[in-house]
Design a protein that fits this description.
single chain; alpha/beta; Rossmann fold; 2 domains; six-stranded mixed beta sheet; six-stranded parallel beta sheet; 10 helices; 40% helix; binds 2'-monophosphoadenosine-5'-diphosphate
């Protein structure tokens, strides 16, 4: 639909943002839903979160996604923050309701929807979670809330420990943690049914790396990687070669976007359209 004087504006704020998949994904969704809406990328530099939220209010921007480096520092400039985002300590979606800005985190629910979509059960299962950064925090709260027995492994152990303490404090569940090393993977993986990578290991351009030795992967393990570029990371490729079920990072990307779309529009997200748009964009980026 060609933009008009009534076109509703949404977008993403972050730095860098020029390689974001979200404009392609959300504009495809708006078009499929027949909405006179548009989604654009706004480069918002570190330290400019307050100015960004003021601009959102002043210009009546309906919705924003928030990415690096603002997911944490934008919080004080919002009028309210929902419980999930508050506990995770990060906002990835803002809804502007008549000048009142409300923050959400759809990474956590998007991660859960991606697993559910692939019939991955987590309740009472041991889940080994690699990474304790922003994405790791969202995945950890999501998994703990759904009854998983969680083991958090991170290169920097202090960060793993802090996340384990935060999640345990919020949920009352005991969370194991340790360093991300071959030894600890060897210790914890045999009892696990799900392995989730939230580190950036394997991400373009260092695509040959994997956070887990291939020989520890096995048929009765589900392996989920939140890295979506490349779509088939070395970890997922090696897991598939050993007969494991895999869930790609594209799924979490699509579902967090679908949930943001629904918060802004109140319309059910055209998930298939969004997935195709991301895959097309990733294909283009790989050329
Ligand atoms: P994001 O918001 O995408 O999670 P982040 O907060 O920078 O990004 O976190 C990146 C994660 O990848 C962290 O868990 C980081 O480990 P540290 O906390 O020890 O830095 C992990 N990571 C990045 N590069 C890594 C590497 N080469 N080996 C192992 N872990 C790595």
């Amino acid at each position: 639909m060609r933009p008009s004087g009534r076109t509703v504006v949404c977008g993403i704020v972050g730095d860098p943002v020029e390689h974001s998949m979200s404009p392609a994904m959300q504009n495809a969704a708006f078009a499929a839903a027949g909405l006179d809406w548009v989604y654009v990328a706004f480069r918002l530099r570190r330290g400019e979160a307050e100015a960004g939220t003021a601009a959102m209010k002043a210009m009546g921007i309906r919705g924003l996604n928030v990415t690096v480096p603002h997911k944490v520092d934008i919080r004080p400039f919002l009028d309210s923050i929902d419980d999930v985002a508050r506990r995770i300590g990060a906002v990835n979606t803002i809804v502007n309701d008549g000048g009142l800005l409300r923050g959400y985190n759809t990474d956590a629910a998007g991660f859960a929807r991606a697993l559910k979509d692939h019939d991955v059960e987590v309740r009472d299962r041991t889940v080994v979670l690699l990474g304790a950064g922003g994405a790791g925090r969202a995945a950890a709260f999501s998994l703990a809330d759904r009854g998983a027995r969680l083991v958090i492994l991170n290169r920097g152990v202090a960060r793993a420990q802090a996340l384990a303490a935060d999640v345990a404090g919020a949920t009352g569940i005991v969370i194991e943690h340790g360093p991300l090393s071959d030894e600890s993977l060897q210790h914890w993986l045999p009892s696990a049914s799900l392995l989730v990578n939230t580190t950036s290991v394997g991400m373009n351009p260092v695509t040959g790396d994997s956070p887990c030795p291939a020989q520890l992967l096995r048929e009765d393990l589900v392996v989920c990687d939140i890295v979506y570029n490349p779509r088939r990371t070395t970890l997922l490729q090696e897991a598939a070669e050993r007969g494991a079920r895999t869930v790609s990072g594209v799924e979490m990307l699509v579902w967090q976007g679908a949930l943001a779309f629904e918060l802004w529009t109140g319309v059910q997200a055209p998930v298939e359209v969004m997935r195709s748009a991301v895959e097309e964009e990733l294909g283009r980026a790989a050329v």
